[in-house]
Amino acid sequence: MWPIYLILVLVLSYTAYNRFFHPLAKIPGPFLASISPLWLTYQGWYAQRPTVELALHRKYGSVVRIAPDEVIFSNPKYFNTVYGAGASKRFRKGRFYEALTDGSQAPGPDRLDMLTEWDQDRLNHQKRLVGPVYSVKNTLRHEGLVVNNLVRWMRRLDRLAGRPLDVVHEFELLMIDVQTEITFAQTFGAVDAGSDGEHMETMSKMWEHWGWIGNLPWLNAVDKKITSLTVSIGRVARVCMQVGRI
Prior knowledge:
By secondary structure, the chain is mostly helical. It is about 65% helix and about 5% strand. The chain has a domain of about 60 residues. A hairpin with a 2-residue loop joins strand 1 and strand 2.
């Protein structure tokens, strides 16, 4: 029986620490959220975080604890504290961002991924390289590209007048064409085609997965190992099939 008692003691100790002795213990929030990341994982699984977090702010105030190691803010006065100059030295990216890595880029000095980059020096370097492209000043220089895409988009809406429209989808088409033309000097053509090749739908499904598994780093690590193994097996199987045809 002692293994059961040991597990029980560990669970109770973990719960007591998170609830009463953790550095964030005094920050208000749901009880279950304060003792385990499973509460936040549940909200992510059912895609409830946007509405739930608004409700939490109304109930607990502008600073709310939503996981043992996670806090959300709604008061603009905290913006510079969290995101301003020097904030990155106080607040590092959480392990949630590990879920967003897909292995498509090999580790190394040439790896570029500002969303998931943990190394603050590398991230700052990447921002200096890419930031000017999306600065307000540079965007104003390319205002004509934005206007051209808006004109094409408005013509599309005129053609669809009187029909039911998915407004979110239509704005996604416009966003894709504007961003691709500013970035690559060539529009993707989503507005004219009325389709983005299901890119946004695929991205949405990826975020549905990341939105919950990112709160459980250990499970995310297992998931990526299994995915990597599955891909490797698939590659070997394709090679074997090609060899068999020769």
